[in-house]
């Protein structure tokens, strides 16, 4: 490594990136992009989905190798070849999709990470370090708890704690609040602010401007792989200017107009579902969803929403009640029969439950068409037809960041969601179950998702929209109900709904 003119922690920038280029499958993801991060600062990296935010941070931590450009850490030009080398240089990244082993305990994950970084320790020593660091950070975290049994917020704490125990002085958080409640997000951002005030450098990848205003010192904005605003002061700035730089001007969104619904497409009567531990997740739930309407189900997370989606999808059984899809009995129907009846599912976690990151876009788009024979018999698939269909879908849905051969895991969140919509909202979709379809997406990607759902409903489908985002529920739904402790309130027309009334139902006070 060669020192720069001003080397040394606290004087030189913690991280300096210049003229970074990166392309995937011939499609540029970064073009001459840059980023400068100082110690003692929380620095927001803002931009719409697909702007290149996660990509440039993955270059910083050597997850990706840049095609061109320079990365300087602590004033030294580095040649970081692996994430382990990046950690040794003091860079730690908490990714959107956590890198923890679900079947391992928190302490086992920490011991595994320390061992991989050349700092082997026993499980008892790892547990001691977890307890001490958790107390220091004011975390509530059991070192002996299995990760898969922790809440999302607890898993994130474990990820942050793991990175800090590995010695990270430069901390990169990629959309850390996307899957958190408002209270959990405030707690995490307060911790981020504290870590910077103690002398660390923190890069916060986000598209939420209120987080920038409340917790950040500087902001860099990216658009279409380029840096359009570099290291601007947040104090005294106009957030509307930041928004225009990030996503441009967006037209106003109309509220749902009254509709005359058609025939019932989804009928549920007295449905009950159990969790894996045998506890009640859904109790006596009934609803009727008709063609041409969107029924929104609001509610705080953990009130049975994932279990309802899994049951409707055919992934978990009902213990009581009935489900009818497009007039067909489907309570115990296998997934394939539900699909034939027109069921389409947009799960809350597309990377875990819908897309296969290692497969190219063409194959991800073809997954639900193979069993229908859309590409020939399964033992002799017509790959040319598959590629042509994918090219059409990529163009029509404006999926950016790759071509038909690009692995889906390389797409940004917004483009991955467009990919999922392209597959699920085809001509055969009659009943759409969409769970938090815009979670973690920026304004433009959210608009694209909402427009796609509206279009499918205008063409005769019915949509069951399940979301913790009240604005999303009230923007899209024709009728709204609230799910609380596994039970559903009586649906009300959107014209009669208010945030206060829905909030009371969500809290169980009405």
Q: What is the count of structural domains?
A: 2
CATH architecture of the largest domain: 3-Layer(aba) Sandwich
CATH class of the largest domain: Alpha Beta
| Strand residue percentage | 15-25%
Task: Tell me what you see in this structure.
The protein has 510 residues and is of the alpha/beta class. It folds into two domains: 149 residues, Rossmann fold, CATH 3.40.50.300; 244 residues, Rossmann fold, CATH 3.40.50. Helix content is 34%, strand content 25%. The protein contains 17 helices and 22 strands. The strands form four sheets. Strands 14, 17, 18, 19, 20, 21 and 22 form a seven-stranded mixed sheet that branches. α15 links the parallel β18 and β19. It is globular and about 70 Å long. The protein starts with a strand and ends with a helix. The N terminus is likely disordered.
Question: What order do the helices and strands come in, and which of them pair?
Answer:
Layout: E1 2-3, E2 15-24, E3 27-37, E4 42-46, H1 53-60, E5 68-73, E6 76-77, H2 83-88, E7 91-94, H3 106-116, H4 123-137, H5 152-165, E8 170-174, H6 182-197, E9 201-206, H7 209-215, E10 218-223, E11 226-233, H8 239-247, E12 264-274, E13 280-290, E14 294-298, H9 305-313, E15 320-325, E16 328-329, H10 335-340, E17 343-346, H11 350-353, H12 361-370, H13 383-396, H14 413-424, E18 431-435, H15 443-458, E19 462-467, H16 470-476, E20 479-484, E21 487-488, E22 492-493, H17 499-507
């Amino acid at each position: 490594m060669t020192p720069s003119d001003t080397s040394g922690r606290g004087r030189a920038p913690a991280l300096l990136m210049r003229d970074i280029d990166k392309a995937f499958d011939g499609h540029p993801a970064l073009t001459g992009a840059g980023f400068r991060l100082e110690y003692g600062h929380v620095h927001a990296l803002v931009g719409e989905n697909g702007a290149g935010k996660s990509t440039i941070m993955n270059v910083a931590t050597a997850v990706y190798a840049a095609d061109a450009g320079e990365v300087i850490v602590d004033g030294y030009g580095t040649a970081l070849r692996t994430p382990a080398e990046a950690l040794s240089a003091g860079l730690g990244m908490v990714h959107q999709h956590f890198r923890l082993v679900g079947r391992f305990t928190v302490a086992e994950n920490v011991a595994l990470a320390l061992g991989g970084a050349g700092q082997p320790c026993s499980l008892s020593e790892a547990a001691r370090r977890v307890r001490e660091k958790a107390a220091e950070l004011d975390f509530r975290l059991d070192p002996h708890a299995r990760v898969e049994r922790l809440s999302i917020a607890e898993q994130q704490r474990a990820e942050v704690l793991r990175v800090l125990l590995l010695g990270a002085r430069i901390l990169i958080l990629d959309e850390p609040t996307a899957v958190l409640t408002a209270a959990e997000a405030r707690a995490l951002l307060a911790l981020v602010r504290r870590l910077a005030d103690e002398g660390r450098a923190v890069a916060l990848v986000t598209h939420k401007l209120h987080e920038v205003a409340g917790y950040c010192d500087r902001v860099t904005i990216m658009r279409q792989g380029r840096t359009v605003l570099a290291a601007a002061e947040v104090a005294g700035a106009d957030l509307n200017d930041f928004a225009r730089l990030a996503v441009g001007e967006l037209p106003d969104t109309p509220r749902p107009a009254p509709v005359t619904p058609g025939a019932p497409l989804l009928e549920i009567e007295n449905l009950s579902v159990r969790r894996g531990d045998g506890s009640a997740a859904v109790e006596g739930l009934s609803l009727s969803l008709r063609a041409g309407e969107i029924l929104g189900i609001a509610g705080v997370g953990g009130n049975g929403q994932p279990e309802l989606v899994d049951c409707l999808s055919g992934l978990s059984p009902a213990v009581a009640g009935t489900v009818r899809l497009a007039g067909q009995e489907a309570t115990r129907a296998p997934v394939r029969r539900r699909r034939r009846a027109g069921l389409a599912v947009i799960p809350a976690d597309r990377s875990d439950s819908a897309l296969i990151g290692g497969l190219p876009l063409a194959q991800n788009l073809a997954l639900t068409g193979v069993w229908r024979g859309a590409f020939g018999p399964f033992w002799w698939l017509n790959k040319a037809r598959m590629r042509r269909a994918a090219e059409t879908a990529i163009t029509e849905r404006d999926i950016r960041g790759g071509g038909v051969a690009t692995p889906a895991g390389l797409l940004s969140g917004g483009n991955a969601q467009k990919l999922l919509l392209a597959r699920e909202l085809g001509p055969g979709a009659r009943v759409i179950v969409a769970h938090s379809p815009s979670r973690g997406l920026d304004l433009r990607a959210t608009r694209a998702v909402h427009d796609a759902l509206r279009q499918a409903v205008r063409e005769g489908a019915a949509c069951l929209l399940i979301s913790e985002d009240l604005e999303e529920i009230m923007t899209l739904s024709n009728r709204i109900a609230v799910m609380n402790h596994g039970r559903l309130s009586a649906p009300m027309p959107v014209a009669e709904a208010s945030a206060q009334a829905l909030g009371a139902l969500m809290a169980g006070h009405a």
